[in-house]
Design goal:
296 residues, mainly alpha, transmembrane transporter activity, amino-acid transport, transmembrane helix, BCAA_transport_permease
């Protein structure tokens, strides 16, 4: 492997890492912290992508259009949480059925309102050329967006009063309520954050994928659920580790063979990891921490 090929594999890894992390992070917040399996996660991403694309077509600059996409998805998530999701906390199977139904409704409603596709927003920044290869600079920069998103979540949930109250609510709702925490508002806020992150993913990938269709969100759903299972319950620990591991596997096999082989290799690696680490990377990190504490 020469220098150009190594650089190409690196760019493919960064793209795969960004895709997996950004596809996963909103789902991981809602599932890992609230216990809701949101099968409509892909359609939350769809809302962000469509809102971004339609706003850009109305003349808004792309960053402003992306902001519209995030805000629209956040509002959509809050309305959904207040009307449906709040009644499903602690009812795992019911939440799966309800969100699957919401997913079907959103896909068909999008097709009715906007047709089978809408025009794509042009990808900014152009391409990087090196040797006989070229790569979209925007796709590479998405890795920076993924890292910034994880850093923002870390600061939010570990360095702010909101984060302390949110984690207290998730760990022991009754005790948190007895100490004056508005747990109902915490659940709503956490779901809104997960929705906003899904909207951010849709907004960021609206210029990077083919013309958005009603099935746009389904492209992200498999990777998101695989990464959540491999990463484990901790959003801040499991998501980046799962993204790095699965992204490296997919990038290497995609470079050596094809995108299809890369995806298959990633899924096989995920199956092996689930067998070896039932609690995911989060469980592995926690067991290592426990061993260190006991040895001190």
């Amino acid at each position: 492997m020469n220098g150009y090929e190594l650089l190409n594999v690196t760019f493919q890894f960064l793209e795969s890492f960004a895709f997996i992390v950004l596809a996963t992070v909103g789902l991981a917040v809602i599932f890992g912290m609230m216990g809701i399996i949101n099968l409509a996660h892909g359609e939350f991403i769809l809302v962000g992508a469509y809102a971004t694309t339609l706003s850009a077509h109305q003349g808004l600059p792309l960053p402003a259009a992306m902001l519209v996409g995030v805000v629209a998805t956040t509002i959509f998530g809050i309305v959904l949480e207040r009307t449906i999701i709040r009644r499903l906390y602690g009812r795992l199977l019911d939440s799966m059925v309800a969100t699957f139904g919401i997913s079907l409704v959103l896909v068909q409603l999008t097709r009715i309102l906007f047709g089978n596709s809408i025009d794509q927003v042009s990808t900014p920044f152009g391409a990087i050329s090196y040797g006989s290869y070229s790569y979209s600079l925007y796709r590479v920069l998405l890795a920076g967006a993924a890292i910034a998103t994880l850093l923002g979540l870390y600061l939010l949930f570990t360095r702010t009063a909101f984060g302390i109250r949110a984690r207290a609510t998730i760990q022991d709702e009754e005790t948190a309520r007895s100490m004056g925490v508005d747990t109902d508002r915490m659940y709503m806020s956490t779901f809104a954050i997960g929705s906003a992150l899904a909207g951010l993913t849709g907004a960021l990938y609206a210029p990077a994928r083919a013309s958005p269709t009603p099935e746009f969100g389904s492209e992200f759903l498999v990777d998101a659920f695989v990464a959540v299972v491999v990463g484990g319950p901790s959003v801040l620990v499991g998501t980046p580790l799962a993204g790095g591991f699965l992204g490296l596997i997919e990038a290497f096999f995609t470079f050596q063979w094809t995108q299809f082989i890369g995806t298959v290799a990633m899924l096989v690696a995920a199956i092996v990891m689930i067998r070896l680490l039932p609690d995911g990377f989060s469980g592995l990190v926690e067991s290592v921490r426990t061993s260190w504490r006991e040895s001190e």
